[in-house]
Amino acid sequence: MDDYRRLYDEVLANFELPGDAEVEEVDAGGAAAIWVSAPGTARDQVVVLVHGGGWCMGNAKGYREFGYRISASADARVLVVDYRLAPENPFPAPVDDVVAAYRWAREQEGVRRVALVGDSAGGGLVVSALVKLRDDGAPLPNGAVVCSPLVDLAGEGASLTDRAHLDPLPAKTLVEAMGGAYRGGVDPKDPLASPLYADLSGLPPLRVLVGTDEGLHDDSVRLVDKVRAAGGEAELEIGEGLVHIWPVFNFLPEAQASTERIGEFLRKRFANPA
User: Fold this and answer.
1) Tens-digit pLDDT profile for residues 193-202
2) Measured between alpha carbons, how far is 163 from 160 in angstroms, rounded to an integer?
3) What pLDDT is recorded for position 223?
4) Do 98 and 84 form a contact (C-beta atoms < 8 A)?
5) CA-to-CA dists, residue 218 to 24, 56, 81, 149, 153, angstroms
6) Could you report how far apart the first and last alpha carbons of the chain are, in Å?
7) Which residues are known catalytic residues?
8) Going edge to edge, which strands form the sheet with 113-119?
9) Closest Cα partner for 119 from 35, 222, 50?
10) Could you tell me the pLDDT band of residue 170, with boundaries at 50, 70 and 90?
11) Nearest partner of 129 among 38, 29, 215, 216, judged by Cα
12) Taking residues 92-116, what's their average pLDDT?
């Protein structure tokens, strides 16, 4: 696990944070986090960003550049959550940290609108947080965006095998090995650990991005279908020929374009809350 974490951190270190970024490390309701803002962005709008890494890798520092791009495109401050990692801190610790950071962000002086964004395992944590917040009767975000979300720990999506030859990421292994470390013996269809199996009614508007060349393609499609079947609003962006979490990779023109569309969705949700 240490080797995997080091390699992932080395990849994320290539995404250089612009020099004009405003950065501040904070304790967000007991969860470590980093504020990242592009110059001149609105102070009353916040995006809580939840990083990927299979629940076991990654950190907020490595996602500051992605947070900066989202801040600029959404006209909002971004709070990148450094949630506790499995296997040392298995489910529900990461979900609890995301929920705590979201609640903390809402309570900050002057904040009027909050959204959630996450990729891969972080996207799954975002959906889990939405379900928990709804079940707790808490105020919900204005909207949420998930990129290539991991929402099915049972691994029942056909694309895990059907599209494995297209995907440089061993998605099936990720779900089985790191997903197993995350759930720590909990049923793989537990609705909070594996939110595809939750009641998805009553959630805020959702935007989902996934590539055609992903083993996790079907997770996104099934998630959108289930939200819509429950009466919710869900948009689906499918990136032709694109792979897992492509919006994070800032050297891709498609990443820059998708970040702008994420920002457009969030600005709309901030301006017209449900």
Assistant:
1) 999 999 999 9
2) 6
3) 98
4) no
5) 37, 22, 27, 10, 13
6) 42
7) 120, 214, 244
8) 22-28, 31-37, 77-81, 45-50, 113-119, 143-147, 206-211, 234-239
9) 50
10) confident
11) 29
12) 98
Contact predicate 8/57, CB 8 Å: yes
Residues 160 and 153: their CA atoms lie apart, in Å, by: 12
For the segment 32-79, what is each residue's pLDDT rounded down to a tens digit? Answer: 999 999 999 999 999 999 999 999 999 999 999 999 999 999 999 999
Residue pLDDT, tens place only, 9-26: 999 999 999 999 999 999
Report, as an integer, the average pLDDT of 111-133: 98
Q: Give the integer Cα–Cα distance in Å for 190 and 194.
A: 6
User: What DSSP letter does each residue of the chain carry, written as one string?
Assistant: -HHHHHHHHHHHTTSPPPTT-EEEEEEETTEEEEEEE-TT--SSEEEEEE--STTTS--TGGGHHHHHHHHHHHTSEEEEE-PPPTTTS-TTHHHHHHHHHHHHHHHSTT--EEEEEEETHHHHHHHHHHHHHHHTTPPPPSEEEEES----TT---THHHHTTTT-SS-HHHIIIIIHHHHHTTS-TT-TTTSGGGS--TTPPPEEEEEETT-TTHHHHHHHHHHHHHTT--EEEEEETT--TTGGG-TTSHHHHHHHHHHHHHHHHHHHS--
d(CA 261, CA 267): 10
